[in-house]
Amino acid sequence: xxxxxxxxxxxxxxxxxxxxxxxxxxxxxxxxxxxxxxxxxxxxxxxxxxxxxxxxxxxxxxxxxxxxxxxxxxxxxxxxxxxxxxxxxxxxxxxxxxxxxxxxxxxxxxxxxxxxxxxxxxxxxxxxxxxxxxxxxxxxxxxxxxxxxxxxxxxxxxxxxxxxxxxxxxxxxxxxxxxxxxxxxxxxxxxxxxxxxxxxxxxxxxxxxxxxxxxxxxxxxxxxxxxxxxxxxxxxxxxxxxxxxxxxxxxxxxxxxxxxxxxxxxxxxxxxxxxxxxxxxxxxxxxxxxxxxxxxxxxxxxxxxxxxxxxxxxxxxxxxxxxxxxxxxxxxx
Amino acid sequence: xxxxxxxxxxxxxxxxxxxxxxxxxxxxxxxxxxxxxxxxxxxxxxxxxxxxxxxxxxxxxxxxxxxxxxxxxxxxxxxxxxxxxxxxxxxxxxxxxxxxxxxxxxxxxxxxxxxxxxxxxxxxxxxxxxxxxxxxxxxxxxxxxxxxxxxxxxxxxxxxxxxxxxxxxxxxxxxxxxxxxxxxxxxxxxxxxxxxxxxxxxxxxxxxxxxxxxxxxxxxxxxxxxxxxxxxxxxxxxxxxxxxxxxxxxxxxxxxxxxxxxxxxxxxxxxxxxxxxxxxxxxxxxxxxxxxxxxxxxxxxxxxxxxxxx
Lengths: 333, 310
Hints:
The complex is a heterodimer of chains A (333) and B (310). Chain A folds into 2 domains: 35-142 and 268-291, Response regulator (Rossmann fold), CATH 3.40.50; 144-264 and 298-325, Rossmann fold, CATH 3.40.50. Chain A contains 10 helices and 12 strands. Chain A has helices spanning 2-24, 50-65, 82-94, 108-114, 144-158, 173-189, 206-218, 232-240, 269-280, 310-325; strands at residues 35-40, 71-76, 99-103, 122-126, 137-142, 163-168, 194-199, 223-226, 244-249, 260-266, 288-291, 298-302. Residues 14-31 of chain A have low confidence and may be disordered. Chain B has 310 residues and is an all-alpha fold. The mean pLDDT of chain B is 92. The interface between A and B is large, with 41 and 42 residues.
């Protein structure tokens, strides 16, 4: 009897495992009308920064295209390990998604290797302009220096101590563009304002980002900015010290409504819409897209809870306009 | 510009930052010291910290009670420790590998809970700075040592307590004997399993507090993977500190002070490339380790599962 009970348990357990496996197998190819996208992101979809900018954009695309019946997307977030990300990219490609997005410049070499194995699938990666000349890879990037410049202009206007602190992750790519644009904006507005820049060498070390902000404040900064997902630690310190904060990548107003002035927000849907329509017309890659203020891929969003003086807001808006019409040229080092 | 480094603002800034940065390392590394002195290497510290950080944050966020947050983090850490103890003591599993397993579990689980239960990055009002009457007013020193929050003070108080327990109590003697020569300890009636259970659960509890010190005292946010390798550095600090609480304190302070020094170097615009600056704490810590390595000897039974010979 005991033996039978054991057997029964075993069979039950096995059947449960097997049914679980069954649920996990890919759904059969969807009808052609439904556009299917898979995206791999380095941090969490709710990081209030880089990954969230893509997640929010996909939600907007889905809404524009008429909901999940017309546009379906799945994601793997927290893929800071590039090897795992590469495996996920390959899996998604094998499952027949129309578009696989590798949202992170660190995934480039993996994509370069994988894409040729799936000539029917379109891939996109960012942030970069490099498609490696592979016919089924799209590239996208943000002109983050533009929003950085606008933030910089406002920061220089609002700083009374004339010292501004910047908390960056690693001195490359999107972060460097933003910081350099920010510095250019400050310098163009008030050359006497000093910008102290601190790259902490990590995208995830919230504790060090927080200490970096404290250091800036001790050095006299009354306005701070920073880029990447670890800045949530820095925003908290800015709030404690009542220093102003300028955000980028996603709208960071919710974290500290009393001190966030404006955020440069990426609207990747501008690039995504173009990529999707190209795929639908049979072009699977080979082009690169740039999100900027002119095409609406970047938007400077003001925090409604922060009482920004009208003349400062007008200055910011005219700066945006100047960058769009080309009357303001941003020179990067 | 170099001379600016010696100004009072900068020196106070470096010391005060360094003391804060060292706090999570101290809790985690002192806990790990107990485990390693009894012969168990726990590489799961990082995972325990992450789950502790999330638990403390979530409870503080929903109830507004910080102490309840700390308590929950301790319980979560202790349960993780209990599981680690079962795997390494009862099942005699390879300690390094199972530790990595617990780390990955904590990393994934804390992220999952964060996504499902919070949904976005939120903030809490964490432990405020606590000024100690009289002492906080001393110029310079007051701000550095007596203008911190309660969990920071706790971390530094833990060092003499740990030293006392390890060196001056019967329990400490048992822990050390189990880590040096479990067979001898066993023959004298010391339960190797019970001691190891105790130290691993204690380590987990302290790692939980280490996480709480980040999420509800120093940073007051929870972000996915927010410990970002702190737990592994804590394990390294145990080796650096030669398995002694005071050595661990020295290592944690050295590493943290150099880290805050490099922050200031960049802020002051001293022309050192940022990549070199962020390397400084690691390089200098390795150099000190190399210079002092000869006197270091690990507990003899470290990483060795104990099986009674019949």
